């Protein structure tokens, strides 16, 4: 080891220059991380493949500016030098690139490594006096490239890529086997067919060329230095939070969601309003910002009127709520920029922009995002297309942020383009599972079926011959992740209840490629017409599916309960081997409970006597299970468990198990029976892992909602004559139970919807990051809760399975008994899973809304009776009301005043028309007044609305609702049964899309075989049926729980 010195010239927080001398040690044994190493390096972690034709060493400027190109998985064998890594790390304004570079190096799916060239004795280059930093960094990277070539004994050519033409001239001919070329030449010569890389390089290059061409006139105030922001936050002068732009008033209204733990202002107990883009000061929706509050005399209220178009109404004339804290952004702590989908403006608009330089203002699909200026030479070719762009910078001299295009999605309005837009806007990346990931899966075929490992029989508790195990799922379900058992133990004094969950983690090793992909996805994504699985189908639909009559591995929880009191006497956790005897569907199980004649498929081939005996045994088990579930539910009800509104749906399948229709699912007691057993298992597993690992357990809590969020619920209930107490979950549950209108069952339904909307989100967390009083689950009324019962579709459940295994080993003093993740790592994972869950729910909602619009798109609202429906008023606004349409499961705004100042008036027959007049809002009603008199619309009134589609060039299409009568829809009862529920729209749109696609069959399938097999289903799927409408409901219903 050789000792030397490094002299650093740094700047202090106050801007003073500081000269720092540090000891610097060089050594010979620095790992190269190459599979063709001849020197015996200790290469732990990722290793570069020996099958590649060459290795690539990018210099510091390429890493800083073109990292997005290097992120493409096709580019392999990349050696990032310590010099380039630190150049990005210490470059102010490059924090996003640095975080992405770190993620790239950690991700084993990317074939790249980090080489510590500045600690290698023979590659280290001291900086000469007077040598510029850029020249020194390029010299260091070239020296590292030469060392790599020599270290590998010339077995692998090394290509150094740089944008410095002087470096190409200086170094390109110095060493045989080490090639120095520009990144453009590298792509053209080595990757001529990788179109994505060429387009991305061209886009970034144009953006870099245009970067310095902004004007000098300042459009926004400069952001305060980091040290000033930090001091202001500590003193309470400033507050920090996340910027949330109101998409309906994106030009004039945004809110700062205050982070409570960092808020030193004790008078501040609500969000902060930011009015106008100037006060937003270049902050983008989702950014972490610092805000300075205005004096109270300048505080304003948020707008309470409905808005038909972004920024179309004058803010000075709008009705406002009570004044709330108002301020302006003075600094940005964290840029949370992502990929944005944009659309190019019409040709006439682009011609008015800077046509010569091809700098175009594109409009994001997300209305919360400002226009983005990009440089392109394809403005004409990309008309009417959706394009993915990234923001590069937003200087104080620019009205808009600058960015570059990444790729083209397709023509706007096409179904596949709009679906991909939804995925990208929610940061959902679901490529087909790679060959490397699929190679980790067990190989099964008809000739070589999967069999139980004899070694597993020894270490697992074998329940195949001792327990009657059965599953209860939707009709036709093939991906069964939970089964149940219940029986009386000898003596008759004790019942044994069992919940058996697919042992996914047996097949998915922690840290494997499949595990890393599942962690990245975090959940299975359910859209209206397809799903993207978290795990390959060989697991989710086969080996980890607890199908009837086959041996399967499971993780089980077995309770011994007192037969009379059902008190828990003993709990056993462990890995088991099961064989499900019956694969029941809900309707069949309910029929058996009622004593009806029902055919059980597994018993059809048996003789009468044996069949009757087995049927009696199964029926007795179902009755016993229902008895236990009633007891569990009653106990939670006494503690204040909530039953909030969720629309139930079920599937109709054809002989090939394809879903042909979606219809409302009638609530059955067996649904709640299965749900209670799953909740019970989740609760007891939470107890087990928390007690075993107090600082490192993954739980799920549901914080109590803020009382101000219940205002609409309380006021609406009061308007109908009900008192709604929200002081506790028990009081709320009791109030909702009593708020029933015998004349209109929709009243209670809508009140429960309002209660659901007031709820905070249930979140995963690490126990070491919260005090124990924060573990409580408000909706389920449980002191501890987690997710254990659906590891096929939720990564959180896989984490919990591993924690439970470690807890069992700890108790038995065998094997690995410590969690692999620290509290900090577990909390980071919890935040990642929470973010992905929110994205999944948002994508599901947006895809459903897309199909709703596609259903109505080709219908004439003036003629087609499908466009006329009964609606119920559930909220009053300053210029209209919000309504719910039970027939389609739709919610939307109905305006009583338009932009011309006209208001809706009602004739003697109830029909509505527009006339000049005024609107008066009251807490429980809204009235319009004109020459014809006064018309009033009250909460929970039934009215008739006409539904039409509002097209948009830039954003998603939306539905428009117009009141045409103040009376209920007259033909609602006489009409033949139509599509019931919003899920029915999916069926109709899919059918129409398939008819249109039939004419295009010669073009071949849109998706690869791997994508169809391992990523998504083509038609609506079972999971989406159960998940689609429960995104807000808090009850943990069988496999549909979202808590």
Automatic annotation (TrEMBL):
Gene3D superfamilies: 2.40.50.690, 2.40.50.700, 5'-nuclease, Nucleic acid-binding proteins. GO terms for molecular function: enzyme binding; exoribonuclease II activity; RNA binding. SUPFAM superfamilies: Nucleic acid-binding proteins (SSF50249). It is an enzyme of class 3 (hydrolase). GO terms for biological process: gene expression; mRNA catabolic process; rRNA catabolic process. Residues 460-810 form the RNB domain. GO terms for cellular component: cytoplasmic exosome (RNase complex). Keywords: Cytoplasm, Exonuclease, Exosome, Hydrolase, Magnesium, Nuclease, RNA-binding. SMART domains: RNB. Its cofactor is Mg(2+). Signal peptide: none annotated. Residues 302-324 are annotated as: Disordered. Its EC number is 3.1.13.1. Its main location: cytoplasm. InterPro entries: Dis3_CSD2, NA-bd_OB-fold, RNase_II/R, RNase_II/R_CS, RNR_Ribonuclease, Rrp44_CSD1, RRP44_S1. It catalyses: Exonucleolytic cleavage in the 3'- to 5'-direction to yield nucleoside 5'-phosphates. It is found in: Cytoplasm. Belongs to the RNR ribonuclease family. PANTHER family: DIS3-LIKE EXONUCLEASE 1, RIBONUCLEASE. This is DIS3-like exonuclease 1. The gene is DIS3L.
């Amino acid at each position: 080891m050789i000792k030397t010195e490094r002299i650093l010239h740094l700047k202090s927080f106050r801007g003073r220059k500081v000269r720092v001398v540090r000891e610097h040690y060089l050594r010979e044994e620095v790992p190269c991380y190459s599979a063709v190493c001849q020197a015996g390096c200790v290469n732990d972690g990722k290793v570069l493949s020996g099958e590649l034709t060459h290795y690539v060493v990018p210099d510091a400027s390429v890493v800083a500016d073109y990292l997005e190109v290097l992120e493409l998985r096709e580019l392999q064998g990349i050696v990032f030098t310590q010099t380039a890594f630190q150049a990005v790390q210490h470059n102010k304004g490059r924090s996003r690139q640095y975080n992405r570079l770190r993620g790239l190096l950690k991700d084993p799916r990317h074939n790249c490594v980090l080489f510590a060239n500045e600690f290698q004795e023979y590659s280290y280059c001291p900086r000469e006096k007077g040598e510029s930093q850029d020249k020194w960094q390029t010299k260091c990277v070239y020296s590292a490239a030469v060392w790599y070539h020599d270290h590998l004994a010339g077995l692998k050519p090394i290509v150094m890529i740089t944008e410095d033409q002087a470096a190409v001239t200086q170094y390109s001919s110095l060493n045989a086997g080490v090639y120095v070329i520009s990144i453009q030449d590298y792509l053209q010569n080595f990757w001529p067919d990788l179109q994505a890389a060429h387009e991305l390089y061209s886009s970034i290059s144009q953006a870099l060329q245009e970067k310095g061409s902004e004007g000098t006139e300042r459009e926004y105030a400069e952001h305060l230095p980091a040290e000033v922001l930090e001091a202001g936050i500590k003193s309470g002068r400033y507050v920090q939070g996340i910027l949330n732009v109101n998409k309906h008033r994106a030009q004039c209204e945004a809110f700062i969601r205050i982070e409570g733990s960092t808020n030193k202002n004790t008078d501040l107990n609500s969000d902060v309003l930011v009015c106008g883009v100037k006060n937003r000061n270049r902050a983008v929706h989702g950014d972490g910002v610092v805000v300075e509050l205005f004096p109270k005399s300048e505080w304003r209220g948020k707008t309470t009127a409905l808005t038909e178009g972004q920024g179309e109404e004058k803010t000075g004339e709008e009705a406002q709520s009570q004044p709330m804290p108002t301020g302006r952004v003075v600094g940005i702590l964290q840029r949370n920029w992502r990929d944005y989908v944009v659309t190019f403006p019409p040709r006439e608009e682009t011609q008015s922009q800077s046509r010569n330089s091809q700098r175009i203002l594109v409009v994001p699909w997300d209305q919360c995002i400002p226009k983005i200026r990009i440089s392109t030479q394809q403005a004409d070719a990309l008309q009417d297309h959706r394009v993915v762009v990234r923001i590069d910078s937003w200087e104080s001299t620019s009205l808009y942020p600058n960015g570059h295009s990444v790729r083209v999605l397709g023509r706007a309005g096409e179904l596949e383009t709009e679906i991909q837009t939804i995925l990208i806007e929610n940061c959902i990346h679901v490529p087909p599972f790679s060959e490397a990931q699929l190679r980790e899966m067990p190989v099964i075929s008809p000739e070589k079926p999967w069999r139980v490992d004899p070694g597993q029989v020894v270490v697992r508790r074998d329940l195949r011959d001792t327990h009657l195990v059965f599953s209860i799922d939707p009709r036709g379900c093939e991906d069964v992740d939970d089964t149940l058992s219940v029986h009386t133990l000898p003596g008759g004094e004790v019942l044994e209840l069992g919940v058996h969950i697919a042992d996914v983690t047996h097949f998915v090793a922690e840290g494997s490629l499949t595990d890393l992909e599942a962690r990245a996805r975090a959940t299975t994504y359910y859209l209206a017409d397809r799903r993207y699985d978290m795990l390959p189908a060989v697991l989710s639909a086969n080996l980890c599916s607890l199908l009837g009559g086959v041996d399967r591995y499971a993780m089980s929880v077995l309770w011994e309960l007192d037969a009379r009191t059902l008190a828990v006497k003993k709990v056993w956790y462990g890995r088991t081997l099961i064989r499900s005897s019956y694969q029941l569907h809900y309707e069949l199980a309910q029929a058996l409970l009622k004593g009806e004649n029902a055919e059980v498929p597994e018993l059809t081939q048996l003789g009468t006597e044996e069949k009757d005996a087995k049927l009696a045994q199964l029926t007795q088990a179902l009755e016993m299970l229902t008895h236990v579930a009633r007891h569990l539910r009653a106990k939670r009800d006494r503690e204040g468990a909530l039953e909030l509104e969720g629309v139930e749906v079920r599937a109709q399948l054809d002989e090939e198990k394809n879903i042909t229709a979606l219809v409302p699912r009638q609530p059955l007691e067996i649904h709640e029976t299965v749900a209670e057993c799953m909740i019970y298992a989740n609760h007891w597993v939470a107890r087990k892992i928390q007690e075993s690992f107090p600082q490192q357990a993954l739980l799920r809590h549901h914080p109590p909602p803020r009382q101000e969020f219940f205002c609409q619920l309380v006021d609406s209930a009061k308007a109908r004559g009900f008192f709604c107490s929200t002081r506790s979950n028990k009081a709320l549950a009791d109030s909702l139970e009593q708020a029933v209108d015998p004349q209109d069952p929709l009243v209670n339904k809508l009140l429960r919807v309002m209660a659901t909307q007031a709820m905070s989100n249930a979140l995963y967390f690490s126990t070491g990051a919260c005090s124990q009083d924060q573990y409580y689950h408000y909706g389920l009324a449980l002191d501890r809760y987690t997710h254990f019962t659906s590891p096929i579709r939720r990564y959180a459940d896989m984490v919990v399975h591993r924690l439970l295994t470690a807890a069992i080993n700890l108790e038995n003093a065998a094997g690995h008994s410590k969690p692999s993740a620290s509290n900090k790592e577990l909390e980071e994972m919890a935040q990642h899973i929470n973010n992905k869950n929110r994205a999944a729910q948002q994508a599901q909602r947006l895809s459903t809304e897309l199909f709703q619009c596609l259903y109505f798109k080709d219908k004439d609202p003036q003629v087609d009776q499908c466009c006329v429906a009964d609606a119920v008023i559930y909220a009053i606004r300053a210029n209209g009301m919000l309504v719910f349409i039970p027939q389609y499961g739709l919610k939307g705004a109905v305006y009583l005043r338009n932009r011309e100042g006209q208001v809706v008036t009602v004739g003697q027959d109830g029909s509505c028309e527009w006339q000049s007049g005024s609107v008066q809002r009251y807490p429980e009603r809204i009235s319009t007044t004109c020459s014809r008199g006064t018309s009033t619309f009250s909460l929970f009134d039934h009215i008739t609305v006409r539904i039409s589609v509002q097209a948009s060039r830039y954003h998603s299409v939306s539905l428009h609702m117009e009141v045409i009568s103040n009376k209920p829809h007259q033909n609602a009862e006489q009409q033949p049964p139509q599509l019931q529920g919003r899920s029915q729209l999916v069926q109709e749109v899919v059918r129409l899309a398939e008819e249109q696609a039939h004419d295009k069959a010669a073009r071949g399938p849109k998706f690869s075989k791997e994508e169809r097999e391992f990523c998504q289903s083509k038609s609506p799927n079972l999971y989406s049926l159960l998940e689609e409408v429960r995104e807000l409901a808090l009850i943990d219903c069988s496999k549909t729980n979202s808590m």
